[in-house]
Amino acid sequence: MKKILSTLALAIATLALPGLVMAQAADPKQALAAKVVALQQGPELQRLIGQLADGTANDLLQNWAPKLQANVAEAKRKEVGDALNIELKKYFDDAAVIIGSKITQASNDALVPAYMASFSAEELQQLATFFESPVVKKYQTAAPQLGNSFIQRLVEITRNDIAARAAQFDVVAAKLIGTPTAKAAPAAKPAAKK
Length: 194
Hints:
The protein has 194 residues and is mostly helical. The protein is built from seven helices and no strands.
């Protein structure tokens, strides 16, 4: 009787999770796996959707930027470029919606079966309890800011080294392609002694 009640409570809780579609809601392990997948998808999921949409927008930009330069008169380039940027923003917004609308399907197709194969029903219940804890919810809320702070600091402390390495690449690329490199700025003269 206790097992039936816990299974029923789990099924009711799982049905309350937004967006998850259970092919076989009667399977308690599948319901637990779906619950764990839903619980772990915190604010970082929106960042992932944005990154994926941004990647596809960058692909379009890389394709069309050279065409803009080659096919549009310089006098009209800014106007056409601004119009393309507006369309690119619309594309990005639409791509994010499309990607976001497929999260449930991807979760059900890939993650739920993987969790079912990797964890027992008891382990899935422990994971669900973990993800429902207030500290994990707080962590999921704080994670984007923590990640941004780390990334900003990493960029700051590597900027000069990366720029120096990019300059080395430019020199080699210019030799390979046969184009002149930009001349280095003259070294600063030491201050006159008084």
